[in-house]
Each structure stands twice: as C-alpha cells, then as structure tokens.
Amino acid sequence: MMLDAWGDASSLSDLMSARNQSLSPIDRASHLRSDGDALALLWKTAAILPVIDGHIGAGDDGLRFVDAQMVEFLAASFEIGERYFLGQARDGGQAFFAWSTSWINEPSDEKVKFDGFKTLREVGSDLSELELTLAMHAVGLSNWHKSHPVCPRCGAKTVADLGGSVRVCVEDSSQHHPRTDPAVIVLVKDAADRILLGHQPIWPEKRFSTFAGFVEPGESFEECVSREVFEEANVYCNDINYLGSQAWPFPASIMIAFEAITDHPDDAKPDGTEIVEVRWFSRDEMKAAVASKDLLLPPTISVARKMITGWYTAKAGYTVSDLNGGESWRN
Ligand SMILES: [Zn+2]
C-alpha cells in the first residue's frame, strides 16, 4: 500500500531536510583533504567556526565565524586547536573550517566560559540551512575527535589528519574514521490516521514525541523499527515506509525516519521505563491539546517535529501554525 502521509513533493522537501532532496549547500570537497598546501591557503581566507567543548560561536542572529587572524589571537587563551575542513560554499567557493579547542585555564563561571558560544540545541532552530549544515558537521566532528585521543589498536596518541576527516595513530599509522551511530525514529499510525506519541520521564512535562532507538549489530532498519516500537509502546507495526534522514550529532547519530502502521492501536501501552505514557492523537485532538498547552511537541529542529508536522498538514485545513510552540529545547 502506498501511504500518502506527506502530500506533494514540495511539502516533503520543506519537511525533511532539503539535503534529502538535493545537494548539500556545502561541497565537502574531499579531494582537497589530502592537499595540505591547498588547505593552508584556504585557511587564510576561510570563515572559521570556533567550537569550544561542544559549544559553537553563535549569537541570536546565527553563527559567528572568525577569521584566521582572530584564531591566532584567541589561541593565547586556548589549547592549541585542531582545524577541520568543512568544505566550500557551492556559490562562490567560500571555504569553511571548524576550529575545535578547549580552555587552558577554564573559567569557573559558565557565563564567562561560553560567552558568545551556544550549543546546537540552543541555536539549531534559528540557523539557515547552510549554517545548520556547517554546525552539524563541525559539532559532530569535534565530538568525535575529542573522544578519540588514543589509538584503539595500541593505545598511543592519535592526531587529526586529512583536514580533520580522520585521526592517525602516531605509533602504528593506523587510520581511524569518525563514527556515526544509526538510530531509527518512527511515526506510528493507525488505520484511522491517528498517530501515537510517547513521553519520556527525562523530558519536560507534557512533551510527547515519536519513538526512536539505536540500530543494533546485525539488525536491519526495518527490524529495528519493529523492535523499538514494540519495546517502547507494545504494538506491532507493518507497512514500514522510509521518510528521510537527518544528521543528529548529539553526540554522533543519524536519525533514519520511518512511518509504520499498527493494526492493534488498543494494545499501545508504555514500557514504564524509557516511555512512561503513550497517547493517540487525531489531528483535531492534537490541535486542541497544543492550544490548551496539554501537549508540548518536540523542538522544530528535530526530525520528530518534522514528521509530526508532515502528518498534520497532509490533510487540507490543518496548518503548521496550529502547532506553534515548543520551538526551543526546553520550553
Ligand atoms: Zn596505534
């Protein structure tokens, strides 16, 4: 059965990241990663995104890039940073790097420590497509480099190489590549076109979202969808349909989005640990629950929110503005 959850193609590209439909706004230019001279030249005129302990240079108006001179100036207060080549803009060729570093003498005051810096969760919803692409890449790389300082084969130190796309062991020269952990995320529907959402105890009160979980070794995405939904919400699904994917570097995931149908909506119940409450929503029920603040949807940056909005607006008369609220991570 073809599922008509998304309406026309233009709304699909709005919903899921445009990256699913077309080229990324950034050309990663991987052929330049092995050309140290070219990278050194590009660095001189690059827009550089500083990353300090998972926080990126950002203000209310978006990302705050610095230039190479500013990095030299900042370097006095920070550990020697690593440069990661993020690529070039497709229009005009502007080069982008991340500069990932840590404080030498870490200020105890968090406000001073991260003045001018924000987490991706804080600013993600406010960024343009190009900015979000760069920020996701920079934060994902920085997270990985920071957590892989030594060689998993021999325990010796590793150093960043190939423009920050790998780490290399200084002893045995083994090359180690950034890891991305696949996780499925599932919009569960029933035959009446309602959707099932769950509440995790660590979330703000009234926040409900779709079901998600990491793919385990030896498991297909589809098997993972079935297992996770059954584990968390006690329902078996069929008609599993791929919707799209989104990078999710918190700290190193990619979310692979599916919708699935259950023929047993009345069986839905929470597992009691990961999920403590489940609720079915028709569109009218969702609209009323959002309006009365009885339902807080996931942040707009999240793939979960895009899936929910996609389902909601697929029927005439239901618009995105009905679901306003919950734009940021913790409100
Ligand atoms: Zn080694």
UniProtKB/TrEMBL annotation:
Q: Which CDD domains match?
A: NUDIX_NADH_pyrophosphatase_Nudt13
Keyword check for Magnesium: yes
What InterPro entries does the database record attribute to this sequence? NAD-cap_RNA_hydrolase_NudC, NudC-like_C, NUDIX_hydrolase-like_dom_sf, NUDIX_hydrolase_CS, NUDIX_hydrolase_dom, Znr_NADH_PPase
Q: Which UniProt keywords apply?
A: Hydrolase, Magnesium, Metal-binding, NAD
Q: Which cofactor does it need?
A: Zn(2+); Mg(2+)
- Recorded protein name is NAD(+) diphosphatase
EC nos: 3.6.1.22
Source organism: freshwater metagenome
Which SUPFAM superfamilies does the record match to this protein?
Nudix
Where is the Nudix hydrolase domain positioned along the sequence?
178-303
Which reaction(s) does the protein catalyse, per the Swiss-Prot or TrEMBL entry? a 5'-end NAD(+)-phospho-ribonucleoside in mRNA + H2O = a 5'-end phospho-adenosine-phospho-ribonucleoside in mRNA + beta-nicotinamide D-ribonucleotide + 2 H(+)
Q: Where is it found, in Gene Ontology cellular component terms?
A: cytosol
